[in-house]
Amino acid sequence: MSNKRIYVLLALLVLLQLFVPAKMIYDHESILSKGEKFKFKTAPIDPSDPFRGKYIVLRFDASRFYVTDKGPWYSNQEVYATLGNDKDGFAKINNVYRTKPESSVYLKTKVDYFQNYEESDSAYLNLDFSFNIFYMEESKAGAAETAYFEASRDTNSVAYANVSVLNGEAVISNVYIDGVALVK
Amino acid sequence: MLKDLQELLNANVISQSTADQITEYYKNKKNKEPNRLIAVFGIVGAILVGMGIILIVAHNWDNFNRFTKSLLAFLPLIAGQILAAYAMIKKKDQKVWIEGTSAFLFFSVGACIAMISQIYHISGELPDFILTWMLLALPQIYIMNSSVASLFYLTGINYYVMEVGYSRFYSLESLIFWVLLIAMIPHYIMLLKKKAESNYAVLHSRLIPISIMIGLGSSAEKNEELMFIAFMSLFSAFLLLGSLPVFHRTSKNTQSFSFFGLLGIVVTLIPLTFDWIWPNLFRSLEPLSVLIRTSELHAVVFTTLAAIFLLVRHDYLPLTKHTAVFKYSFIVFIGIFFLAAISPGLSQLLSNLMLLFIGIRIIQNGIAEDHLGILNFGLLVLATAVACKFFDSQLSFVIRGLVFVALGLGFFYTNYLIIKKRKQHEQ
């Protein structure tokens, strides 16, 4: 390869390496600014990732949805969940579809598992929300976990996540435990 | 060496001009050495700094707002790119610059996307993150002609396949691994052709067969018994591949394929010498109509075709005539495997005999080559074959004990024979 061609390729590589992260930022910023805002009631726990550091994993109350349509549903199946709010102002799933819904606000998500109780005639889907991770400064992740455990012992305590939803994609912006934001 | 030169000169073994040439040669060689040391320090330094940045990023800095953090995420990346470009333009001939900056760039790409993942709490699981990282780093291997990037890339895709292939069900991701692996092979071929003596060629020669084994293992799911065939075919293919002339041109260090092939055949056979696998072998397999769509059967077909292709296509260059027959291992083994449908006991017996036969052939090879390492490897195979059989059987402890004593004496005796033979040669 001639020098010139290598420099052109190098320049393309540099642009590609800059473009991909920049695109990640752009996509998520547009969801945060244009997306519809929801509060998802949650229960966090605290693991860590070797490259990206400490985070808390969020378990959402709304991720379970009772269905009358008994399937077939299977793990990792791609589904669309339309969203609304309950009487307390927390997000809830209105319905789950196998194909993209026409209107309203929806989440593109996956089935975690499907539980069917033959005898009681009830069945529910557990959905795998993509926004179930909240990264924190390592010194604070432990404290956040403790705060959560204390909060979970107190039944009146409420933890929820602020989530913006746009065109099926969601970005989490903050987590609140009893009204206190984890990130200022 | 230089001290002996005077003596050789005095004894008229070499002429003055030869002595000067030798002195000159060693002087030059010495001059090159520090270069190598600097290369190692340069690259290791760049790696440490790169990894350090990843750890600092992993702290998750809360004090900055989103915009500042996003800008900061690009800092190491841009620094890495500037350094790499500088090395490519100004220090083109200095390998240490190219490899050092390439290592740094590799990590800064990872650091940048890791930081953005944090800022926006992108849960995208670990494999997705690694995949993005590796895809962004892959062109570096070729554009910068960087073996360090290639080695890290190999490590990265292995991490990837272990995450997707072993902890979840077989899926598209396991296939992506093979595409990722094939994508770096041209670099390896270039290394073998142009720099077969370099440490990079040696490291690649070890890491690539290991990667293939890890990748193949990820195909195992419900019908894992079939993986015995897949691995046996793979290891036969390794043996055949390792005998290609390209691996024999230089040092023995690049012959890892032969090494892993032989070791793999032995290790695959060991569990099959016991009787608990064979009787249930076919019972636990799914029916053929289902099997056709399973990853295990695909792995079997692919590895076996590869082994047949290599067997037919090129002239086999065995290390010695004693081990030449090992190239047929997979064919013999497939016969033994399917025989179990009729007689599991016979399959078990034949597996034992196959392992014994391999052990004996390796021992013969060791004696013929006057190589203690090969001899003892053969003895170890033989001892393993016998030991497995005896843990498994109902024979009395006295007989088992005697056999072990005999094996131990065999070790001493054969080693003694070789050492004696060597001493005779020396005299």
What secondary-structure arrangement, pairings included, does this model have?
The complex is a heterodimer of chains A (184) and B (427).
Chain A: H1 3-34, E1 36-45, E2 48-49, E3 53-60, E4 64-67, E5 78-85, E6 91-97, E7 106-117, E8 122-128, E9 133-135, H2 138-153, E10 159-166, E11 169-177, E12 180-181
Antiparallel strand pairs in A: 1-3, 1-10, 2-3, 3-9, 4-8, 5-6, 5-7, 7-8, 10-11, 11-12
Chain B: H1 2-10, H2 16-58, H3 66-90, H4 95-119, H5 126-143, H6 147-166, H7 172-194, H8 199-217, H9 227-242, H10 245-248, H11 256-272, H12 288-291, H13 295-313, H14 329-339, H15 344-369, H16 372-392, H17 397-426
Helix pairs in contact in B: 1-2, 2-4, 3-4, 4-5, 4-6, 5-6, 5-7, 6-7, 6-8, 7-8, 8-9, 9-11, 9-13, 9-14, 11-15, 14-15, 15-16, 16-17
Which regions of chain A are unreliable across 5 or more consecutive residues at pLDDT < 50?
none
Query: What is the overall number of helices of chain B?
Result: 17
Q: How many individual β-strands of chain A? A: 12
- Number of helical runs of chain A? 2
N- to C-terminal distance of chain A: 52 Å
Strand proportion of chain B = under 5%
What value does the average pLDDT of chain B take?
A: 81
Q: Note the overall shape of chain A.
A: globular
The biggest chain-chain interface is:
A-B, 36 and 39 residues
Q: What letter string, H or E per element, gives the SSE order of chain B?
A: HHHHHHHHHHHHHHHHH
Number of domains of chain A: 2
Low-confidence stretches of chain B: none
